[in-house]
Amino acid sequence: MEGLGTVASALLALGLVAVAVALSFYERLDLEKDIGVAVVRSFVQLAAVGYVIELVFGLESLGYVLLLLAVMVGFAGWTSARRARGVPRALPLATVSVGVAAVCTLGLLLLLGVVPPTGRYLIPLGGMVVGNSMNTTSLTLGMIRDDVRARRPEIEASLALGATSRQAVAPILKSSLRNAMIPLVDSTKTAGIVFLPGAMAGMIIGGAEPLEAVRLQMVVLYMLLGSVSIAAIIAGLLSYRSFFTGRHQLRATLTGAE
């Protein structure tokens, strides 16, 4: 925003947050506290990561970039596991899903020479990959957990008729993977018509040529579509097994979501 400093612009934007709080209070949604916590946390976390990224850029070391990405993956796995409470071994499952998606996606971009191996590219792109993979992993784990509980009699009937655990849970796995990927698929379909994606909008606001912004946004969209697909599939294939014993029997106790 021309003529205003960064801090002043952020403070003015808080007016929109006040609108959200007022609407929540008016409609009795009981989200005022969550909105306040979200604003404070985002401010602290973004400010902190800004200083960290500036430090990493100054060091110009690929090792520090990879270390920062590893921390992102670890925190994403922890966050996803908290959302997927009730899924056995949720923390390692979520961390592996997000980590493999990040490694495969960023590794392919580097291998094909789409982006250079520098922190200026890897950190923001890695953050997008990790963040979207985390959300998709959380959705996948949560939906599989809820469906396994809700359709337990159906699953046990399939097992009693001789089905394997994979066969018994196949409909649940298919619908969970599909539903977890639909949001990003729909966003990709409508990019440029319904909305301008964040990377493109940010570059244009920053003064970049529109066509250059479009080129980068295409890379980002296709990168994210690939990464969430990988994360969802890995999360689904690993998580459903945790609900069964080695003899393809549904575990006796499935803890509830907290």
TrEMBL record:
Membrane spanning residue stretches: 6-26, 38-57, 63-81, 93-115, 121-144, 190-208, 220-240
GO cellular component terms attached to this protein's record: plasma membrane
Source organism, top-level taxon: Bacteria
Pfam family, one: UPF0014
InterPro entries, sorted: UPF0014_fam
Record localization: Membrane
Keywords associated with the record: Membrane, Transmembrane, Transmembrane helix
Membrane topology, record value: Multi-pass membrane protein
Family, similarity comment: Belongs to the UPF0014 family.
Official protein name in the record: Iron export ABC transporter permease subunit FetB
Source organism: Rubrobacter marinus
Gene field: fetB
